[in-house]
Amino acid sequence: MRIPKRRLAVLREHIKAESSHNMRDLLDGMTSNCFNDVVCVPKPFVGPKKVAERYRKHWAGFPDFKVRVKRILAADEKCIVTENEWSGTHRGNFLGLQPTGKRVRVRALVVWHFKGQKLWGETVFFDLGSIQKQIGAKVVAPARRRKRSG
Fold this sequence. Notes:
This protein is an alpha+beta fold.
């Protein structure tokens, strides 16, 4: 798995911009038709305005948000797959979860998609249940339906 130095630099610059909440640098490293697909959210964020909206919402939920790549798992000519860990203090609404002030650490798997020398987008997998548990959110399972007799 040989990854071009320039591609690794783009990835490092993106992670740095994401962790420092630098929207300009973050979007500058992405294509004009960029996307961010957070798998636990119903629809992907497509285009710079929507991608920026996604990051603003994330940063509002976790104002001290930081992310780091723990390791590179796979790569080919169009993508890199990483195991990441992000952390932050839950101080704002995040995916409908009201702020708790609790600190979280979240493991994530990210597929970084490239077009040419720029980052095209991210597909992000993380366990929302783990966040809910760490912040003490009450998760209510739907009631079981009774079976009809005979």
